[in-house]
């Protein structure tokens, strides 16, 4: 990216990093994704002078094959918007960050308002 004069890195995290749930055993995910959040902010500062932006998307429940067999109606309760996320929601966030060339070091929450409610 430095050779080409810039670029954009987007990492994927989880809102469980900021707000763990007693009913969701996710310490390993929180450890690895928490590191991504810290790296996002640190790298954003380190790479800004090279015109490289670094952002993250922090997800709530997004229905994917990972949730096959889960009751998607029960999962809605994790979101104040009372719906599950869709892959399209993540794509829209990614497109926003890609177009927002004055944004770096941002943790963009796509979690139906879960993080805002804490």
Q: Which class of secondary structure composition applies to the elements?
A: alpha/beta
Poorly predicted parts: none
The level 1 CATH classification is Alpha Beta
Helical content class: 25-40%
CATH homologous superfamily classification: NAD(P)-binding Rossmann-like Domain
List the helices and strands and how they pair.
Elements: E1 7-14, H1 27-47, E2 52-59, H2 72-75, H3 87-99, E3 107-110
Account of the protein in words:
The chain is 32% helix and 17% strand. The chain has helices at 27-47, 72-75, 87-99, and strands spanning 7-14, 52-59, 107-110. It has a 3-stranded parallel beta sheet, sandwiched between helices. It is elongated. It starts with 6 loop residues before the first strand and ends in an 8-residue tail after the last strand.
Question: What are the salient characteristics of this protein?
Answer:
alpha/beta; Rossmann fold; 3-stranded parallel sheet; 3 helices; elongated
Short description:
With 118 residues, the chain is an alpha/beta fold. It has helices at 27-47, 72-75, 87-99, and strands at 7-14, 52-59, 107-110.
């Amino acid at each position: 990216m430095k050779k080409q004069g810039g670029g954009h890195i987007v990492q994927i995290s989880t809102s469980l990093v900021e707000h763990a749930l007693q009913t969701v055993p996710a310490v390993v995910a929180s450890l690895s994704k928490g590191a991504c959040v810290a790296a996002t902010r640190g790298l954003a500062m380190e790479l800004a002078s090279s015109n490289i932006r670094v952002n993250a998307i922090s997800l709530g429940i997004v229905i994917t094959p990972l949730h096959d067999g889960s009751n998607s109606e029960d999962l809605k309760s994790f979101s104040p918007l009372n719906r599950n996320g869709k892959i399209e929601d993540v794509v829209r966030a990614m497109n926003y960050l890609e177009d927002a060339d004055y944004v770096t070091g941002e943790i963009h929450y796509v979690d139906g308002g879960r993080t805002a409610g804490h």
